[in-house]
Amino acid sequence: MPGDHGLIGPEELKRLDAEKRLARRRREAGRRRAETLERRLAQAEDLRPGGLARLSALLFGIGVHALTVAVLVGSVLLLFDGVWVLWIVALLGFGVVWQLRPRLGRKPGAGWQRREDLPRLFAVLDRVGGAIGAPTPSAVRVDTGFNASTQRLGLRHEPVLTLGAPLWQVLEHDERLALLGHELGHHVNGDAARGVLVATARHSLREWRVLLYPSSGGTRAMSGPAGLAQLLVPVVLFPFYILMTSLDLLYGWIQVHVSLRAEFLADEIAARTASTDSAVRLISKLDVHMTVASHLARVKAARKASRKPVPLEEGAAFWDGLRDYVATIPEHEYARQERVSVFRGTRVDASHPAHYLRRRLLKERPHYEATVTVSDEEWEAVDRELNPFIVEAGHRLIR
After folding, report:
1. 213 and 243 in contact (C-beta within 8 Å)?
2. Each residue of 338-368: pLDDT tens digit?
3. Where are the alpha helices (DSSP H) in the chain?
4. CB 145 within 8 Å of CB 393
């Protein structure tokens, strides 16, 4: 879309113009795959990822972790060989295994709020989870991002929810319900890539590629046997690096056929929770994150120029100003952001489809009315509970 270059900033335009041919081909391939998937799902009876895709994700996770286990077993066997030189190799193997170990994340502790801290919010989460068959998060936290996310942490794999204060504050009540339906929907939308097996395997695969990258660049050239080893190591590592690159390509296929499809399904779950119209408006609000970021930058610059300490109460006033600002964003700005979404498309390694595709599919699928309702009085009670954390987030943003 050459005529749309005026939609994006000069830095992004410069980066795109300098993009290498392979990167450009990957970006266009991601766009084609996502658009093809959206057209197919518009007529599908069920948006849940297919069995073959989920089986591929399972095999991917098992395969990557099996390589790590093989290194661990080999290192243990070398310890019993009795040759001290091999003990050094075994220690290196243990170091590799430690670097590749699955990261489950720390269990929710400081900074996370439990049911007893936010009973009103958890009552709403219970209602949403009960309607869609999803577990209620065991903990919630508020951060400063214009986003929301859900994940599982710790050995018990506890579901947790993160609410970005800027996004939460600019959403209407029905849009908040759509947001909660979408996030909790990730626990029941068949996204195997979010499961502990595949997610930890993806991290291990990144570490494998870093360890096996066949390059000696940046190191001083050596002579003698050490120099020969310096030349041979990249050659020896290259086949293993190709194997890891192939696994990375498989993960890209899994993302298209599992993660993108599951993301579309999470949007439909949001529509069933709060109505199709609410889910569409939610995605449109997500589109103006850069506009909100510009407003935040102006507020921070003004506060910095005053050279006065930022009192905590100003964190509350900031949210009033942000809501008023978002209310004044004209419709043509939302239309422009949709064109930006079309221009950027979906990367081949993206876990989320482009916003224009998410809106398009919601409009092409059956229209849903809300199945969960929350009264204004209940939302006001939720706001009172969250207010200390929202104010503190606002204070962190502008100080």
Report:
1. no
2. 888 887 777 655 678 889 999 999 999 999 9
3. 10-17, 21-42, 51-79, 84-100, 119-132, 165-170, 173-185, 196-212, 224-254, 261-274, 276-287, 289-306, 313-327, 331-344, 355-364, 376-398
4. no
User: pLDDT tens digit string along 116-130?
Assistant: 999 999 999 999 999
- The answer to whether residue 76 sits within a structural domain is no
| Number of structural domains in the chain | 1
- Is residue 181 exposed (0-12), middle (13-18) or buried (19+ Cβ within 10 Å)? buried
State which residues form the domain around 303. Answer: 2-57+194-398
Contacts of 256 (CB under 8 A, 6+ apart): 33, 34, 37, 348
Radius of gyration for the chain, computed over Cα atoms and rounded to the nearest angstrom: 24
Tens-digit pLDDT profile for residues 278-303: 999 999 999 888 888 888 888 888 87
Rounded CA-CA distance 114/276 in Å is 30
Please report whether residue 165 resides in a domain: no
DSSP state, residue 288: T
- For residues 196-206, give the mean pLDDT: 84
**Tokens 């099996």 identify what position?**
66
Stated pTM of the model:
0.83
Place of tokens 């309607």: 131
- Name the DSSP class of 260: I
Q: Do 343 and 8 form a contact (C-beta atoms < 8 A)?
A: yes
Residue 299 within a domain: yes
- d(CA 265, CA 262) in angstroms, rounded, equals 5
Residue 167 lies in a domain: no
